[in-house]
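Hello,

Our lab assistant flagged a job as stuck in the queue for most of the afternoon. It eventually completed. Since we weren't sure the result was trustworthy after the delay, we are filing this so someone can double-check. Below is the sequence as submitted and the structure that was eventually returned. Let us know if re-running is recommended.
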Amino acid sequence: MLFFSYFKDLVGREVTVELKNDLAIRGTLHSVDQYLNIKLENTRVVDQDKYPHMLSVRNCFIRGSVVRYVQLPADGVDIDLLHDATRREARGG
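-- returned structure --
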């Protein structure tokens, strides 16, 4: 639940999601659920030459099980908050 609550705070921010098939999609985070399924709006493919068929896709739903990485905006990462939350979760409370 740690990352779910963290991602909820990033709704409305631009993120890049890299999938397990090497496709990287950048867009505005519209929603995320407890399984880390992600809905992006105003999407664009990072490597447009490799994936030209994705140029017309503007909104997409990404199943959490196919996500390899999520690149967050640099100003959207609060390291102290993540450290505290990780310690609390490790202690079980």
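-- support follow-up --
The delay was a queue issue, not a problem with the job. The result is valid. The helical segments are 2-8, 79-91. The first strand starts at residue 14 and ends at 19.
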